[in-house]
Design a protein that fits this description.
Elements lengths: L1 H20 L47 E9 L7 E8 L2 E3 L3 H4 L5 E5 L8 E8 L6 E3 L3 E6 L10 E4 L8 E9 L2 E9 L5 E8 L3
Antiparallel strand pairs: 1-2, 1-11, 3-4, 4-5, 5-7, 6-9, 7-8, 9-10, 10-11
């Protein structure tokens, strides 16, 4: 009887110790900390803005005529600088064609500038330009300037006539023709003072 009581008492003690002490430690097991997901930039779903289409370029870029062999002759009359007379020059031209296409895209422009290097015995400089002058056409809107050396060696200021300038009383007519690759420019112009230029310029084929 006493033995059974001792056995029951021992079992009760073990139960109490187990409840108080808990299970034996098996090492600290640390659970990973929960982390919030890092926000990532989502791709922009909006369609990119369409860029403007580049301007169309003609298959053949207009020739500016730089270096073309040229001949020019003109008569000055009524000048206020004692420059009246006939003048001629031959050599390479700075321009004899469309000299502004790369800057403006204008396909109808025409320029004649002479000479390419330095000045001649009679013709020091010629500059002509028209925004709308193509072979077979005429225009009354243009700029012409000529610088000469007279028979006496006098080099007066250039005579400039600009019929295209707003409010100008200058007037004139220019015509451009082309045949077998030869370009011919003819013009007759006068300013408000009565100074006049009659000019013919030809550029040989390339």
């Amino acid at each position: 009887m006493i033995g059974r009581m001792r056995a029951a008492f021992a079992v009760a003690v073990l139960v109490v110790m187990s409840a108080c002490g808990g299970s034996p430690a098996t090492g600290d097991l640390t659970e990973p900390l929960e982390t919030e997901p890092v926000a990532t930039a989502e791709p922009n779903s909006a369609a990119p803005a369409e860029s403007a289409a580049p301007p169309e370029t003609p298959s053949t870029v207009p020739d500016d005529g730089n270096g073309r062999s040229a001949n020019v002759s003109f008569v000055l009359s009524g000048t206020t600088t004692q420059a009246d007379g006939s003048y001629t020059g031959s050599g390479a031209a700075r321009f004899c064609g469309n000299a502004v296409f790369n800057l403006t895209g204008n396909l109808r422009e025409f320029s004649f500038e002479f000479p390419l290097d330095g000045g001649g015995d009679q013709v020091r400089d010629v500059t002509f330009s028209a925004d709308d002058l193509v072979p077979g056409a005429t225009t009354d809107l243009f700029h012409i300037g000529v610088g000469v050396k007279t028979a006496t060696g006098h080099e007066p200021p250039a005579l400039v006539i600009d019929t295209a300038q707003a409010g100008s009383d200058d007037s004139g007519r220019a015509e451009l023709t082309e045949s077998a690759g030869t370009t011919t420019l003819t013009l007759d112009a006068a300013d408000e003072l009565g100074q006049s230029i009659q000019m013919t310029a030809t550029c040989d084929p390339r």
